[in-house]
Specification:
Blueprint (H helix, E strand, L loop, with lengths): L3 E4 L2 E4 L4 E7 L8 E7 L6 E7 L2 E7 L7 E6 L4 E6 L8 E8 L11 E2 L3 E6 L1
């Protein structure tokens, strides 16, 4: 079993930045892909970004965050990050870290999930 623990959420003004972290308790083939999803009140959980752990050039982004968010990872710390710049009020959501065996934009494809961290962007 792999446990994921997120941190770094908070309240920020429109145009501000935040960095989310997700520490994994172990590395398995079943979490070679690490992703970030988000869920706003009354909406479905949606894909934000993903990275293949063993090749940092293999990153994937939702169109809505491309060029504003950057996903990265630290091998030594077994941690994945989501740097969020130029934040907008519509980015307000609970952000979840997830781990899965393959790249997929569907949340059902991921085996492991963190508890979520709230990001609120005020206008």
């Amino acid at each position: 079993q792999v446990q994921l623990v997120e941190s770094g959420g908070g309240l920020v003004q429109d145009g501000g930045s935040l960095r989310l972290s997700c520490a994994a308790s172990a590395r398995r083939l079943t979490n070679d892909y690490m992703g970030w999803f988000r869920q706003a009140p009354g909406k479905e959980r949606e894909f934000v970004a993903a990275i293949y752990w063993w090749d940092v050039n293999r990153t994937y982004y939702a169109d809505s965050v491309k060029d504003r968010f950057t996903i990265s990872r630290d091998v030594a710390k077994n941690t994945v990050y989501l740097q969020m710049n130029s934040l907008k009020p519509e980015d307000t959501a609970v952000y979840y870290c997830a781990g899965g065996p393959t790249y997929d934009r569907r949340s059902a494809a991921y085996h492991y999930w963190g508890q979520g961290t709230q990001v609120t962007v005020s206008s």
